[in-house]
Records
---
Amino acid sequence: MKTLFEKIIAREIPATFVYEDELCVAFRDINPCAPMHLLLVPRKPLVQLSSATAEDQALLGHLMLTATKVAAQEGLGEAYRLVVNNGAAAGMSVPHLHLHLIGGRPLKWPPA
Ligand code: AMP
């Protein structure tokens, strides 16, 4: 069965895409927690970060570097946050690895 994000990637569910390449896509979070809240999602349906193996090393690096590219594209400058929730108890609600790219306002710390 496809995950919600696989359906979004397949354009079966609408989303506002801001970036895509052969390995990943980025689209706007439907329930943004800041003026800029994007989700960066690998096309490969890894369940979560802890599901990744050495085989995914290049993909994980690609996601991080793409996040910096999308942040620049979206005008976030040098001020933004990347969040990966791993597991339901950590707030993960969609079981398909994704990076939250959040910014557009001052961000407090700690986040939780
Ligand atoms: P997480 O809680 O880390 O699994 O993050 C899942 C994110 O997906 C949440 O921030 C949701 O607001 C977001 N989300 C859920 N459904 C959609 C959707 N149809 N389009 C865009 N974002 C979504």
---
Amino acid sequence: MTEIARNMLFEPGAPLRGTVQVPGDKSISHRSLMLSALSVGESRVSGLLEGEDVLATAAAMRALGAQIHRSDDGVWHVHGVGVGSLVQPETALDMGNSGTSTRLLMGLLASHDLTATFVGDASLSKRPMGRVTTPLGLMGAEFMTSPGGRLPLTMRGLVPAVPIEYRLPVASAQVKSAILLAGLNTPGITRVIEPVPTRDHSERMLRGFGAQLTVETQADGTRIISLTGEAELKPQTLVVPGDPSSAAFPVVAALITPGSDVTVTNVGMNPTRTGLFRLLRAMGADLTIINEREVGGEPVADLVARHSALTGIDVPPDIAPSMIDEFPVFFVAAAHASGTTRTSGLDELRVKESDRLALMAQGLARIGASVEEKEDGLIIAGRGGDPLSGSNGTPTIAAELDHRIAMSFAVAGLATRGGLIIDDMSPVATSFPGFTAMLDRLRDAAA
Ligand code: S3P
């Protein structure tokens, strides 16, 4: 943790102007390292997110036998070992803050004949793992967990694992992906039934690496994903698009800060990820999508966001999976809209890097927003564009090891009379290295 990340002030000032590029997509970066490590030969990945979460995945894949290095041109080279050939790690796998690394790797290892121990930071050690240990247990893996099914935990994989057909009880791309990754080294067909569609990067990339994977979509939207096991993956050259979940911060900052006009280039526009942008436009945001194209099997575009008068909205719960990580910053936008924004069906936000419903409700209230916290959502009466301001000058918000809470309140601070202080910005390094420098650049461009 760097000293400079402590007690940072975010306050109103110049509008945000100019063009920025956000770091690579976190979900796609994790998957690119994992699947490359399971292909025999060298894969090359450019645009990889070099944040702490993805670096935790890289370190784990090295510990499991892959050779991984970054060349000076920023390209990551992965020499994989092949499906079924990961090796016994010598020490515990330290997952840091990263739920995605943990859950996907548990899937990978469930069908390998080895034992592994997973440890993580205080935030990760509170998060539920039963959602993956249950289906992976059905495939034959064994788990010894800490109380509540949490980390630290030790697992033993099984070879050959047992193929399962599993209906997801929670809408979770991590659970879906863990089962599919376990299925790679499992004889027969592993099937995941997904009643509510979640991000489909695993499906796209597994196909791209040569796995036999089919997706059948039923009339009610349920997706049935079938993977043929004992797969052989072929090395690939991959380009990771910018992370729409990171683009969300400069976009919302521009929408709520008077005089702003920001372009974010190279943003992943996979429809399973773009719920926030759809919703903001429905609220009246001046948000334009230009240069739509395809990069490495994923849709990509540039976004132009200008300060806008937003109107509150009733958020349909079925949009949640396509913007699940964007709710914290969405709540900030809602607090600046005119009229009321109501959300529901967001129980999952309570088990992210923090309890995001509770922290956003508390923090927004401290900066003067009118918020009601329900069990599964927030109801926010917006201020119609008037800057928020708390009763106590410049409040300090605790980020609680949650990068997206830190970044959401940093954005809020730019449009809050008197500003606010974030106690610790260091968690931002998990997903968005250079976040505060980007905000500074956008303001300098306007000065
Ligand atoms: C992710 C899935 C989502 C998301 C997380 C990344 C992934 O989690 O919140 O940041 O890469 O599969 P859930 O599967 O728990 O919804």
